[in-house]
């Protein structure tokens, strides 16, 4: 029955795609509508997420390089986040929530799942705001299918991890919470069942970010969950001005860390393999996690951003992980200080062929960029490679993405303070802050001028995810805000000629786990373009796993050879792909033969 299910899901995943025999590469090629649910009535915004423009706005006075337009107004997305912020300053409200990209119906269009918080004290059985799921109908129109899909339970959701947990070809969703984790398993018909308890992943620890990938090469999806700390509303410390009885959010140092969890997939459920895997050797208030082949040894590695604790770098060493954050240079900033790590991104920033790591941090802490020197050694160069636009702000969600399609990954960061009453307490800082965009110029980042109306106003940003929502070949952005509607941003930067020269790649594993994460793709340009397909990343969010490469030789009719390193370590080279196309590449069952290629419109 599993074999039949895999065959069906492969056909569904390739719906709208054709075998690539009409445009043959050198490699051999083998060849549910739902009505809108009622709108959720969310509470009015408690904070000013889109304040009037107050200087300094990121990049003011600089030339506009990037162009993004807002598509939210007519999109059908009516979600309004609830942070739970109040005069009592319950700590989880400071950290906010994220979002995730999935493909509910395998139609190729990226859908969006938004996590929602709740008011404190939590009342699990009381009616209140819920998570929301929006189906992408095309042309920047989305349909709320939350009720019909069966998702959303009362409680405080935090992070979203997307992946195929049962290898049936459909995206499942893990929701970390302040409270028991939820796991929504797709039924293959647009509906989901919550099965965290049955699967053994319903920890009641305070989970933040999570990532789904095969961590032990058995072809099954495992889960890494960042936990933050031990906090209870009943014995929350008072921080602020006791004379005037004005609270502010306490420092993270008031919250003891909780151990993180690695769930190993047994095929019939999940077991807590945290101790045997080696990840319990360290503790930290986890906020961001990504899984990628960071040391280029064909094994998955785990990088974790911690809040005022050293960051973790777990590298696979046989059947377990070794933590090498400090010895690798990825645990601290350039002065050897632990920062308030929040969001994560990974890319080959300087096109050296090796992945670099980026971490967003708190105000007056620069965002850190760890340049990969090879041999598991990194050098923190944030202040020199990103010299502007970091220190004044509190950074959260982020992505290293080639927004202008010049072959070099650019940088986006969403910002926002934790406290909305700084002025009342006589402290400096703005609650709503501008997002930042940096252009990559040969491996260094230059702060760009405002990229549209969204970047000319301030917001209280948290989660951020990327996807090609309109399927035009470039990368768009969704950003989550505290107590406000999200931002839905269309990338208008590339020209038509640039879009015609792009190549988009989706991978499906067979010998590897079906989700094919993590994987490394390298286009043989000079210098090479490397795309790091990873699980997790950003802040409490999950982006579309799509690789985008650029044809730099405008006289060529075909792309250079593309090398793929699959999660199981096998490698494939594909030649003769056409620019301006999206291909789905399916690994063969034994991982040794040429993959099957499918061309998608």
Strand percent estimate:
25-35%
Q: Give the helix/strand class.
A: mainly beta
Main sheet record: 5 strands, mixed
Task: Label the overall shape.
Answer: globular
Share of residues in helices: under 10%
Describe the 3D structure.
The model is unreliable at 1-9 and 20-55 (pLDDT under 50). With 601 residues, the protein is mostly beta strands. The strands form 10 sheets. A 5-stranded mixed β-sheet has the order 1-40-39-32-36. A 5-stranded antiparallel β-sheet has the order 20-19-18-17-35. A hairpin with an 8-residue loop joins strand 17 and strand 18 (301-306). It has 8 helices and 40 strands. The longest helix has 12 residues, at 2-13.
Features:
601 residues, mainly beta, 5-stranded mixed β-sheet, 5-stranded antiparallel β-sheet, disordered N terminus
Brief characterization of the structure:
It contains 8 helices and 40 strands. It is mainly beta.
